[in-house]
Design brief:
Elements lengths: L9 H6 L14 E6 L4 E8 L18 E4 L9 E6 L3 E2 L3 E2 L13 E6 L4 E12 L6 H5 L5 E13 L4 E12 L1
Parallel strand pairs: 2-3, 4-9
Antiparallel strand pairs: 1-2, 1-7, 3-4, 5-6, 7-8, 8-10, 9-10
């Protein structure tokens, strides 16, 4: 993760010959996710973790936005950046990642940053996991390359658990 340089107070800067200009970290913030082959064109919200440790989902526009796990790498940085989104909304109506199950290996995935730079990823594999069997290190912690992993729910709804039986993970790589 990028760390902004330390800020220097104006009084310190005036007495020193060195001026440190902070790097605007928000410039590299991902703002849009596009998967043309399946019609996804969504704004990206920053998300963290819930009190139970699970990855949060978007809350500003939960059914149409995707959520970038901001405690991990930015898309385009070394490691596994992760973006999630809802499969459906109450009543079973489609949400942002409804068609994610229709993506294919080789499909393009684009992330646009706040400064307008666009990163191109390509789908390398698609996997379904039971929530308790999801390989968290592979999804969130693979530092052997530059990856973007997309996650959503899949399978049948379990009302008593308020979750589905599976998680869909679409693995992508930069380039």
């Amino acid at each position: 993760m990028l760390e902004p340089p330390e800020r220097v107070s104006s009084s310190a800067a005036s007495t020193s010959s060195v001026t440190i200009t902070p790097t605007p970290v928000d410039v590299i913030q991902p703002v849009r996710l596009s998967v043309p082959s399946i019609g996804i064109n969504a704004s990206i919200e920053q998300v963290g973790t819930l009190s139970d440790g699970a990855m949060a989902t978007p809350d500003q526009n939960p059914w149409v936005d995707a959520g970038w796990y901001s405690d991990g790498p930015h898309p385009g940085e070394q490691g596994s950046a992760v973006i999630d989104g809802h499969l459906d909304r109450p009543g079973g109506y489609p949400a942002v990642f409804w068609y994610l199950r229709n993506v294919h290996v080789g499909d393009a995935v684009f992330v646009t940053e706040k400064d307008g730079k666009q990163l191109r990823f390509h789908v390398t594999r698609i996997a379904y996991y039971a929530p308790q069997d999801a390989p968290l290190q592979d999804i969130f912690g693979n530092r052997s390359g530059t990856y973007l992993n997309l996650i959503t729910c899949a399978g049948d709804w379990i009302p008593s658990q308020h979750q589905t039986t599976l998680r869909l993970v679409v693995y992508t790589a930069l380039g």
